[in-house]
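Predict the assembly for these two chains.
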Amino acid sequence: MSMKLSDLTNHAGEWLRGSGPMSEVVISSRIRLARNVAGYHFLARCTRGQRSALERKIRDTILESNVAPNMFYVDLESAPEIDRQLLVERHLISKPHAAAEGARGVAVGEHETVSIMINEEDHLRIQVLRSGLQLEEAWDQINKIDDVLEQKLDYCFHPRFGYLTACPTNVGTGIRVSVMLHLPALKLTGEIEKVFRAAKDMRLAVRGLYGEGTEATGDFYQISNQTTLGKSEDEIISDFKHLVIPKIIDYEHHARRTLLNDRTLALDDKVFRALGLLRSARLITSEDTLSFLSHLRLGVNLGRTKDVEVSTINELFLLTQPAHLQKLQGKKLDGDLRRAARADYIRQRLSAA
Amino acid sequence: MLKCDNCNKPATVHLTEIRNGKKIEKHLCEQCAAQNEGVPVKGHTPINELLTNFVMAHSGLQQQKELGTTCEACGITWAEFRQGGLFGCANDYTLFEKDLTPLLQRAHEGATHHVGKVPTRRGGTGVPMKRQVDLAKLRKELQRAVEAEDYERAAKLRDQIKQAEG
């Protein structure tokens, strides 16, 4: 399995290729479904034995049912910390899933567009990730995967409450629709707060790059639904696709035009400083990297510089993260050694362009 | 060993009740205690919980409150759920339905009923829950039987679980 993981290290997942619809603003579309298997307690009340039995049962079911091409499984109880961190950086598992204890794992397939976490907060957390704005496509795919698994697993389902989840905030459809947006212009013009307020009014959550409780580093924001009961999956997805996301994309485009037309010099200053720093730094933190890459990406999207491909920038967002960097270097790196390795790697990738 | 006042099984639940100034002692087996006195069947119920349940059952107070009901399948109480935010098993949604409803309304824009996908395989029946609860109970009983080294009972329970799983 670690062979498979090392195979992932030197490139970004399919969903980060940066070529999907609206990809200048929308990085990715993600849908996840929370499911629990009937006849077993939820995880908080499972014994070690029950937890292991669940892990085996669900893992075997997934691997036997061919829910996605090229599936592989990572046993997270035995996986080293760096591998777990790598999976978090690639958005294939959540931070709590990486840090938890006991029998648990993740099945990954189809160029990392599918990941199924076993024994996270719920017995199953099925996830489909797509590049750009592709919510309907993601829903079609995850719905089929769910149908296949449902033939083999008895899900906890209640006529009134729907799919039962460990936490009642997920009950009903068990769906979470998340769209990851890159909003550097709204940040630079100071209008991002308006988006937060509008999102709050629409009962949506705004989170950072790595989900709950993380900072919005690199001007990345994940917008997701909080209501899971009383609305159908189609309604939730349709609201996102037709109301929420187009509006935010419009705001961002408007802010980008303002920067381009009225504040050209300030914009170029940000973009070329970022490029200069990334090409010259000898020690660089991952926060600075994300922030400079964000400005560079904005500059490339607005045609201010053609020196770098967007796909290269997208890859660098991922490959300069701590676990990826250490995997690429093939050794554990801390402090200045890690910052130096990061700066070297960025210089090499940006000069070759 | 004392025998149950109602049937002849060994009495494991001993209750003392004061009614009209008269002391009434009751000796019951777990099943009869659960049926007649509202004392839940549970392996190691702490004494204060037993008393609370008993008092609640006789005072006409709604049982399903912070102090009372414990889930038979997973052992969680409403207070424990409120503390951790997570339920212990599927049964909890039915058991705590009344207290849960206002929380759901707050979390889900006033909604209290599921709209959306239904599992195709069993969607028509509408009653899959009972089997699920039964299974969870049977598994718990099996665990207890094994702990008590009652292998005859364990074997029976194992067969029942197999059958229930289909």
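The two ends of chain A are 33 Å apart (CA to CA). The beta strands of chain A are 26-35, 72-75, 105-109, 114-118, 124-131, 157-158, 162-163, 175-182, 204-207, 220-225.
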